[in-house]
Amino acid sequence: MKDRIVFVCESCGASFPKWMGRCTSCNEWSSLVESVEREKKKPPARTPHDAAVSYAEVDVSPTDRLQTGLPEVDRLLGGGLVPGSLVLIGGDPGIGKSTLVLQLADGLQRAGRRVLYVSGEESAAQVKLRGQRLDVAGQALFLLAERDLDGIEAEIVRLDPNVLIVDSIQTVHDPAMMSTPGSVAQVRGATTRLLASAKSRGMACFIIGHITKEGAIAGPKSLEHMVDTVMYFEGDRQHANRVLRVQKNRFGSVSEIALFTMDETGLRPVPNPSTALLKERPAGASGSVVTCCVQGSQPLLVEVQALVSSGFPGNPRRMTTGVDHSRVAMLLAVLEKRVSCQLASEDVFVNVPGGLYLDDPGIDLAVVAAVWSSVRRRPVRASTVVFGEVGLAGEVRAVTACARRVAEASAHGYQRILLPAGNVDGLGTIKGAELLGSAFVKQALENLLETRNEP
User: Is the overall model pTM greater than 0.85, yes or no?
Assistant: First the structure.
């Protein structure tokens, strides 16, 4: 088969012999880009190492994990970095991805690991300037400003590092491929070669990936399937808080998060995220409710704020930050239909302070309670925590990990916990906490109004 021109979808990686306006595989518009399909070589003969082995004979002895120097990152990875694993980190430009991996490189080399940091966007001097600001030191960290994949692999062979960091995969260029760096074929081909090197050498590898305007990692979707772990670094660049979220992890649980703060000396883990996120909560303000969400296995107390104000009749605004816009629209419809709360001509703003984005359905009841509190102009008592999923019939559905949510709320001194009735029976008695189970939204809001004369 000779080299030929094909058109590859940047979204799903499907290839077509000619350009089309729409990918017939994933239905994305204007996602096909030109690429060159190289001549296929005859596959090498199979060796005895390729032979199948009995399931009973497979060695599953635990692997010693590498400690990164950031305990929160080790927790997200499932206890440390697994040798031979490939970790993909994505995030907005300027959010701090390069700072994060440089601090990880420093922690690994301080633990006696040889680290090769490959930068395709900055020179070695620029990387060191950032390292001096972060107090990076040591002789086991090697910097390489290189985009050519052949040159990178030559340095891997020469140095034999324990950990490889590539910043970023979109800048790496395989000279054997005629497509430009950052194209679908280049990203997929470079990742495949790095994956082979990592697995054959037992070398852990961090790869930084650019993201699209929709927030997904740029390149074919197959890129996320190829790697072992996918992490997203999130946050507002104007805000000090940063969130590292695990989207996929073959060696640990998913949806785990770690909270960091960014300052002039780099990223610092937040030891108690619940306390940090609630320390600036205004006292006695209507529209402010504390809820407990679960991110992976970690319960987290956060504040949900709502503001309802008069808008233009027939054109009300619905603005959300930190929560799904469509979900909030549904909850407002439930309030109007099931609780007779008229919002058709009101502007509604919902916000989760701290730079977090919450997709846990357990915060539904807190959003409803915050909007209700703003409408009635009655603050919810500061010692109340609210959580529960809300259905279209106005019912409050049971949530997962309820015991952990209640324990987190009780540990931080919250004495009144408003939760789904379906979760109350399995909890028993919680010392120092009053559990108020509600089967419907209307009943839950009545429980909230009992605090109207309390501070």
Answer: no
Give 152: exposed, middle or buried? Use CB within 10 Å, 0-12, 13-18, 19+: buried
Per-residue pLDDT of 164-200, as tens digits, reads 999 989 899 888 777 778 777 788 889 999 999 999 9
User: CA 174, CA 194: separation in Å to the nearest integer?
Assistant: 11
d(CA 239, CA 139): 34
Condensed to tens digits (0 to 9), the pLDDT of residues 326-357 reads: 999 999 999 999 998 989 889 999 999 988 88
Q: In what side-by-side order are the strands of the sheet with 4-9?
A: 15-16, 4-9, 32-37
pLDDT tens-digit series, residues 302-319: 999 999 998 787 788 999
Token readout for 263 is 């300052």
Cis peptide leading into residue 383 (ω within 30°)? no
Beta bridge partners of 217: 211
C-beta of residue 194 within 8 angstroms of C-beta of residue 186:
no
| Angle at alpha carbon of residue 55, lines to 51 and 57, rounded to 5° | 80
Which parts of 146-228 are beta strand (E)? 163-167, 204-209
Contacts of 43 by beta carbon, 8 Å cutoff, 6+ apart? none
